[in-house]
Amino acid sequence: MHDDHDEISNESGNKLFSDIVNARATRRGFVVGSLGAAALTFVGASQAQANPNKGPNNNSGKGKGADKGLIGFTSIPLNGGPYPTIAPEYALAAILPWREKIDGSGESYPYNLTSEQQEKAIGLGHDGMWLFNDEVLCLNLEYGTNYHMFGRNDVRSLEEVRTVQAAHGVAVVALQRTGDTFKMKRDRRNRRIHVNTPVEFSGPAAGSDLLVTKIDNHNPKGTVNNCSMGHTPWGTYLTCEENFDQYFGSKDKSWTASDEQKRMSISGPNEGAGYGWFDYDDRFDLAKNENEDNRFGWVVEIDPQNPNAKPIKRTALGRFKHEGATVVEGIAKRIVVYSGDDERNEYIYKFVSAQNWRAMMARGKHPLDEGTLYVAEFKADGTGVWNELSPKNPKLADKTMDWILVNTRAAADIAGATKMDRPEWITVGQNQEVFCTLTNNTNPVGHPDRPANLANNADGHIVRWKDSRSHVGTSFEWDFFAIAKEVHDKDGQMFGSPDGIWADMKGRVFVETDGTQPGKNNDQLLVADQKTAEFKRLMTGVRGGEVTGITTADNQRVMLANIQHPGNGDPAVTDFPSAMLKDGQTVPRDATLVIVRKDKGIIGS
Ligand code: FEO
Ligand code: CA
Ligand code: CA
């Protein structure tokens, strides 16, 4: 989701990350302007600096394809054009455009398709995704506005609302390799999960009255605004519900939002970001259907192998604007899930399963249903603590567990969390280092004495930390990996607004952007050396579009990444991906890019 929906709902007195950063820089005797040099002392890292001649030869990739060094490709210039560009050693193909039928026929429904057709086709808003066993892809379809769908900003019927609802959600499709690209195949596992698909709740809040509604009673439906993701060691996909608030509101102008709703950015009857769903679908009218909003903002588990398995909303992971849900095995095989809440001044969370996940499953327990949820508090001395979100925390002793899980932001306010600069994706790289993109924060509230360059963090940064006890402890050490405005190549600043991030286990960190880039150029895909923080630009995206989602196949000899909202839906800006698919369509469509090295080498090398 691009960043024009970044309101502030956090009115707590909790500390801002920028204040902590400033205090930290001051304590060390550095002025804020040299923060990049000051901060990069974590586990022996050196300053972020592009060095095109460097490429440590520690790539462990074996087999076909030459080893070109860790990030040995030719870094390309920024680009503002209507089509993607890629490093000269690489090639690109496009697959899975909006409206492609999920029956594997290779055909697409026409523009102006019906809701019934959209329920059987790839939707809009390609975002987080994961390819299981080089075969079954789960693809988030985060959002598609009325303009993308109809070429105008309003909806005019329930059928139109249903069509937009069907474009949201997740696609599960089986792929088969054809040369340097993939195509969707006919497969029993292919399915669409959308806003009207039956789902279920699990975990500590599952039976809560807060999740019962008038219209569907105990039978919840749907997932929406599916942003980033996670994947589990037991082979399931986790899709994350981010800006769900923008689909809710009321036709009733006298309806007012509760404090809990305001804390989730639902402020009044005119909410809805122009989707207009509650004008035709009472389910999204909060005056008529109380609690429906409480059913969104969760992490949802999907079984990619079983098309009949209902998506399950895992309440133990809390409810907020989940960007992603990054899973790592902690000490003693406990499952740890890191998750950012992407809104200005929101928090970073961690869930730790109660026990070894295999042992839990052997006893019929689900590791994402029993465990402890924490929220991060960053300290100026480079340490941090995870504050428990449960009635066991004395500050939350008067709250019930279901209230804490449904109103997780409010609980985290009380527990004492650090307000971050819009946490987006999280990844775990070599040496168990955790990386989180803080995309930007152009308007943190309060604190007028903050230095100007931190008060307006328009470019974002990438923070990293090392958790205690292999991710299951309650403390961590943190520092910066990169501060966007200080990462330069010979042409100047390389990127702004980092969003997608994925580290391979060979020392490369892939970074995708969503926001204003230097020179107002297109969003991009960069690759950094985890040790040196040297960056190179691998790919640039499409004018008006965002680069989202990362997954790989064939032992990282293929990478998939998405172009979301190319041209912002405007045919005058681009017809992407028609030039690549040669299908003559004029309206731009979200699609997935297949990236290969021409010499079949490791992606990123
Ligand atoms: Fe859906 Fe925060 O990006
Ligand atoms: Ca994002
Ligand atoms: Ca973003």
Automatic annotation (TrEMBL):
Record protein name field: PhoX family phosphatase
Highest taxon of the lineage: Bacteria
Leader peptide range in chain numbering: none
A matching Pfam family: PhoX
InterPro entries referenced in this protein's UniProt entry, alphabetically: PhoX (IPR008557), TAT_signal (IPR006311)
